[in-house]
Amino acid sequence: MSPAPLRICFLTYRGNPHCGGQGVYTRHITRELAALGHTVDVWSGQPYPHLDAGVTLREIPSLDLWNPDAFFRRPSFAELRDPINLVEWLTTITGGFPEPVTFTRRFARAYRDLPASDRYDIVHDNQSLGDGLLDMRKHVPVVATIHHPITVDRDIAYASATNGLKRLGVRRWYSFIPRQIRVAGQLDCLATVSHASAADIERDFGIDRKRIRVVENGVNLDIFHPQPAVERRSDVLISTISATAPLKGFRYLLEAFAAVRAIRPQLTLKVVGRDGHEATNRRILELGLRDAVQFTGTLSDVEIARAYAEATIAVVPSLYEGFGLPAAEAMACEVPVVSTSAGALPEVVGTDGTAGLLVPPASTESMAKSIAELLAAPDRRRAMGAAGRQRVQQLFAWRRAAERMVDIYRELIEGRQAC
């Protein structure tokens, strides 16, 4: 007899479908969990995720202080009478980032008011790691996905800060990390998306490797696939990384692009997303690239797949990735990849030279050399594109990820000491 379907509570303190990977992960893993026959409720703070049929959204409103339409708004006195709102406001205006903590506290408070018939078999946290989860663990097993330890972001941001005041700001912003480490160590189990990330969590969080499960991300192959009707260009690089986060290494991509363009002046760079901050735009001008770099603004997945279909090479210049979904999505569209070897990217791209070329992180010279090498070899690009598509089909499926997560859920439910 088949095991009974589960009631799954999925938590994400932010569900933005267009910025960062949390919204992407939330949408796809919950869709597949529901397709397996389970009841899935997503509890989320703003911005809320896009979810598919069969998955229920339960909103947990925050003060939403980072909303671009009401940036850093001043809360009303009535709002600040709520102690959780007060903590969120005071921490934010003093340079901290409280959302993961305040979200889980709001959820724990809401859960206490649920009737017994609405309780869950499992709580799956999407890297909130706030102390409200410890209240939940008294009632139900809790597993958390850590895409990668946020200590990596902090350390790279700190190293990139140009003066003492900025370094102080970095320390203040990431002051939530010790609490996350403490909470992570008390949960029933942790999941992560790559073996590289698992090793880093063990090192930075002090978590026994036996308590960490690796469940790789998937790619939506219904959207990210070859498009033979779209003409592939021979002179377009594409990247979908943030132009503002030091972790993503955009400055090295710009410098490598400038070096290659010196010998291939027709080459252009398409960056999926909004343009960078003032320093990024200034660097583009310094390198003489104003007319060669195009920021697309926010695109839908369908539009991103179309952009991949037109592109010659996808470039992933990150200084660290816990998985590297942009590389996998490009490969699914038969685009050869030039990627750094940082974090889990070799696990996604595979053997150097098969589906893509791997270069050392922060090495402008190596990146430029590999880009130029592939631009000059159209037959090799086609072979790499086909190999990349095959690799993604074999290894990175959201249904497989959901099935693996269900195995973990049942393991924890049957014996909370299993991890």
Q: Give me the Rg, rounded.
A: 22 Å
Fraction in helix: 40-55%
SSE string, helices as H and strands as E: EHEEHHHEHEHHHEHEEHEHEHEHEHEHHH
Largest sheet: 7 strands, parallel
Please tell me the overall pLDDT: 94
Overall 3D form: globular
Commentary on this structure:
- It is a single chain.
- The chain is an alpha/beta fold.
- The chain has two domains: 7-218 and 397-414, Glycogen Phosphorylase B (Rossmann fold, 3-Layer(aba) Sandwich), CATH 3.40.50.2000; 236-395, 3-Layer(aba) Sandwich (Rossmann fold), CATH 3.40.50.
- Helices cover 42% and strands 13% of the residues.
- A seven-stranded parallel β-sheet has the order 3-2-1-4-5-6-7, with helices on both faces. A six-stranded parallel β-sheet has the order 10-9-8-11-12-13, with helices on both faces.
- Strand 9 (268-271), helix 11 (278-286) and strand 10 form a beta-alpha-beta unit.
- The longest helix has 18 residues, at 378-395.
- 45% of the residues are buried.
